[in-house]
């Protein structure tokens, strides 16, 4: 496929689908692998092809590594090891659609965090969108029990939310603390240091070698899929979209992640309850509002200009 703005849209949709499918595929990986081991295996499958691709495309530049070494290590620890460790541990008790909805709030969290770091008050519309989307997530997590009675929340939901904040820090940090590095170099080096840290944690809290030996073929296949399709290809396709269409136009497609995750859940026969459907809609509306997509649409139609 020749790289054109039209093909970039297709590739970006593939990227968001791969990311969405990760939430469900993680469940298969965790059937016979402990969470930290599964996360390490996933990123081993991701790091090898991404470094081969970087070496063939632009070469591996030691100057970039030396200049940003500390930032690469810290962001790899937070955005790769921390985020993915939290996702794998959290999905032991959380559901894929809940995880996807929590992650859908990350762009708004990143925008608010960036505003705080730059010492300016976040835009009111972003704060409002964050509040609505978080209300939607809570409705999904509690299955509507927020309105009365006992509220039961899986501990995994809290862990995944902490991971999403880690991803927000990673997103802001790559723009603020890394200089003179391409998106491919940032992804490659933070992934490498992230998987090293993940391996250290896995050896400390689990027995990764014996666990991988005893893991089923299906679990290893799930890890390979998440590493190659859900990490390497997803990042590559996303970066192509950013290069050809710009960051702003590409970022909008992140909103398809919870939608694709919901469709995958439905295809697997898991139908959300009515309160959860309301929560899903609220989350998506809040994310669209917080990212300015709804107001931009109304403005383009001339609706807001009347007021």
UniProtKB/TrEMBL annotation:
The keyword Transmembrane applies. Keywords: Cell membrane, Membrane, Transmembrane, Transmembrane helix. It holds the Pfam family EamA. Its main location: membrane. InterPro entries: AA-Vitamin_Transporters, EamA_dom, EmrE-like. It is a multi-pass membrane protein. It is found in: Cell membrane. The chain crosses the membrane at residues 39-56, 68-91, 97-117, 124-144, 150-172, 184-205, 225-244, 251-271, 277-298. Residues 7-141, 155-289 form the EamA domain. Belongs to the drug/metabolite transporter (DMT) superfamily. 10 TMS drug/metabolite exporter (DME) (TC 2.A.7.3) family. This is Threonine/homoserine exporter RhtA. It comes from Xenorhabdus aichiensis.
């Amino acid at each position: 496929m020749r790289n054109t703005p039209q093909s970039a849209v297709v590739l970006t949709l593939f990227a968001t689908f791969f990311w969405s499918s990760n939430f469900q595929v993680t469940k298969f990986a965790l059937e016979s692998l402990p969470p930290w081991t599964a996360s390490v295996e996933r990123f081993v499958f991701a790091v090898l092809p991404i470094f081969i691709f970087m070496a063939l495309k632009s070469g591996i530049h030691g100057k970039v590594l030396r200049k940003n070494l500390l930032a690469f290590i810290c962001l790899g620890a937070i955005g790769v090891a921390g985020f993915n460790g939290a996702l794998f541990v959290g999905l032991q008790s959380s559901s894929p659609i809940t995880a996807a909805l929590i992650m859908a709030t990350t762009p708004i969290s990143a925008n608010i965090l960036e505003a705080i770091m730059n010492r300016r008050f976040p835009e009111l519309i972003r704060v409002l969108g964050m509040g609505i989307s978080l209300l939607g997530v809570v409705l999904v997590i509690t299955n509507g029990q927020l309105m009365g009675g006992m509220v039961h929340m899986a501990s995994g939901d809290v862990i995944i939310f902490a991971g999403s904040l880690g991803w927000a820090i990673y997103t802001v940090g790559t723009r603020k603390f890394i200089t003179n590095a391409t998106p491919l170099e940032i992804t490659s080096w933070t992934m490498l240091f992230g998987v090293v840290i993940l391996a250290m944690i896995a050896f400390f809290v689990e027995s990764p070698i014996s666990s991988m030996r005893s893991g089923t073929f299906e679990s290893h296949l799930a890890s390979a899929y998440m590493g190659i399709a859900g990490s390497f290809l997803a990042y590559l396709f996303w970066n192509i979209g950013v290069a050809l269409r710009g960051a702003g136009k590409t970022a909008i497609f992140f909103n398809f992640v919870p939608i694709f995750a919901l469709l995958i859940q439905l295809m697997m026969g898991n139908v959300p309850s009515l309160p959860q459907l309301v929560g899903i809609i609220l989350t998506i509306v809040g994310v669209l509002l917080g990212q300015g997509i709804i107001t931009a649409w109304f403005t383009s139609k001339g609706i807001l200009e009347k007021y």
